[in-house]
Amino acid sequence: MAHHLSIFVVNEPGKLEKITRVLTDKGLNIRAVSMASTGEFGVVRVLVNDPDAGLSALRDQKFTVTKRRILVAMIDDRPGAMHELLVTLSAHAVNVEDCYGFVIEEGKKAAIVFEVEKFPEAETALEGTSVRLVSDSEIYKL
C-alpha cells in the first residue's frame, strides 16, 4: 500500500524550506506537494519516493508528521474526467477525505492522489472503469 506524508506546520515564512531541506538532505525526491492553511497553522502533504525514510527524517527533526495511506488514480487529462472519477466513488458511498492532483502528460494523463475512508470499496468501485489505479511501486516513480 502506498503512502504520503502529512506534516503539521506553523504558518510562517520558511516552513516549506525547512521540510524540503530535511528531505533533500536524505536524498528523497518530492514527487508531489499540497498545502492547506487554516490561518496560524497548516498541513503540508508530500509524496516522496521513500515515505518511511521521509517520515523518519522529519520526525528526527521534531516535525509533527504522519504517514497516510493513499490511492493514486490515472485519469484522462480532459474536462470532466475528475468529475467522472468522483461520481463513481460517490455512487459506491466512498468518502474522499483528501485529494490533490497533477498532470503527467498535458492533454493525455493526470494523476489524482486521494485518501478515502474505505480503501477496498474505492478499489472495487474503480474496477472496470477507464480509471487506472497506479501500483505502489509506480507511484513513487511518477
Structure description:
The protein is of the alpha+beta class. It folds into 2 domains: 2-69, VC0802-like; 70-139, Alpha-Beta Plaits. It is 31% helix and 41% strand. Strands 1, 2, 3, 4, 5, 6 and 7 form a 7-stranded antiparallel β-sheet that branches. The two termini are 16 Å apart.
Task: Provide keyphrases for this structure.
7 strands, Alpha-Beta Plaits, VC0802-like, single chain, seven-stranded antiparallel sheet, 142 residues, 2 domains, alpha+beta
Query: Mean pLDDT, rounded to whole units?
Result: 94
- Written as H for each helix and E for each strand, in order along the chain, the element string is EHEEHEHEEHEH
Instruction: Pick out the low-confidence regions.
Output: none
Q: From the helix content, strand content and strand pairing, which structural class follows?
A: alpha+beta
Number of helices: 5
Please provide the count of β strands: 7
Q: What is the helix content? A: 25-40%
User: CATH topology of the largest domain, what is it called?
Assistant: Alpha-Beta Plaits
